[in-house]
Write a structure and sequence with these properties.
single chain, 113 residues, mainly beta, six-stranded mixed beta sheet, four-stranded antiparallel beta sheet
Length: 113
């Protein structure tokens, strides 16, 4: 499996924005749906968002709809997750994943004052 690489996590105050990224070097990126999945401390995996291979369609979990925006740049083999109005309960490890089964190691997002 190809290793995906997330970056751009960090500490943000409640209500603030953050924009993690995911790089997929050496991967036929444009062929696959891409998604973001998160795991809060001591909780299971939660699907957050997904984007079609050509970027024309996007999908969101109910809890993030209207606040998060997924996007991708197939020329750069990268995808992004613009997160606005973040809440403390959204503190989690955010994973990038591809529809062919590859995952990244995750980037930590901590929402705290």
């Amino acid at each position: 499996q190809v290793q995906l690489v997330e970056s751009g996590g960090g500490l943000v105050q409640p209500g603030g924005p953050l924009r993690p990224s995911c790089a997929a070097p050496g991967f036929t990126f444009s062929s696959y749906y891409m998604r973001w999945v998160r795991q809060a401390p001591e909780k299971g995996l939660e699907w957050v968002s997904e984007i079609k291979s050509d970027g024309d369609s996007t999908y969101y979990g109910d809890s993030v709809k209207g606040r998060f925006t997924i996007s991708r740049d197939n020329a750069k083999n990268a995808q992004y997750l613009q997160m606005n109005s973040l809440k403390p309960e959204e503190t989690a490890l955010y994973y990038c994943a591809a529809s062919q089964g590859s995952w990244g190691q995750g980037t930590q997002v901590t929402v705290s004052s």
